[in-house]
Amino acid sequence: MVRIIGYKQREKEDGNPFFILELQGGVEMLMSKETGQFYATAKKAYVTSTFDEPTCKALIGTEMPGAIVKKEVEPYAYVVKETGEELVLTHRWVFVPEHEETTKHEEAVDQLMADTSVFSQNGVSDLAEQAI
């Protein structure tokens, strides 16, 4: 589940405003690479919307089935606000609705199981039998 925690106004290329919704996943505990201590965090993603500002405001707190997942993208520059450091990132965090999340999992399992001929059917490798 993800929760709508906010919204922001953006501007289209033609100058017209629109709103994006800020989504946040559940709390996760991660270990710091520097200190070895655990800290709490949550993944965030943004999705565009067709809603007006009052609707976006009313949606804050709404939960939706799905997850925020890492998606590989073309490299892009990102500036860390606190330090001004510029990084080159190759991923974004995106929202995936629950039904698509399940479908991707099922596709991965199907792909893995598609060619079962590569596995031994009797527990003995054919290659090992040929060597005898």
Radius of gyration (Å): 22 Å
Task: State the assembly state of the protein chains.
Answer: single chain
Q: Tell me about the biggest sheet? A: 4 strands, antiparallel
- Overall average residue pLDDT: 86
Task: Give the strand content.
Answer: 35-45%
Please mark out the parts with pLDDT under 50 across 5 or more consecutive residues, or reply none.
Answer: none
Query: How many helices does DSSP assign?
Result: 3
Main attributes of the structure:
132 residues, 4-stranded antiparallel beta sheet, extended
Walk me through the topology.
Elements: E1 2-11, E2 17-24, E3 28-31, E4 38-41, E5 44-48, H1 53-59, E6 63-64, E7 66-79, E8 86-97, H2 98-113, H3 126-131
Antiparallel strand pairs: 1-2, 1-6, 2-5, 3-4, 7-8
Short description:
The protein has 132 residues and is α+β, with helices and mostly antiparallel strands. It has helices spanning 53-59, 98-113, 126-131; strands at 2-11, 17-24, 28-31, 38-41, 44-48, 63-64, 66-79, 86-97. The protein has a four-stranded antiparallel beta sheet.
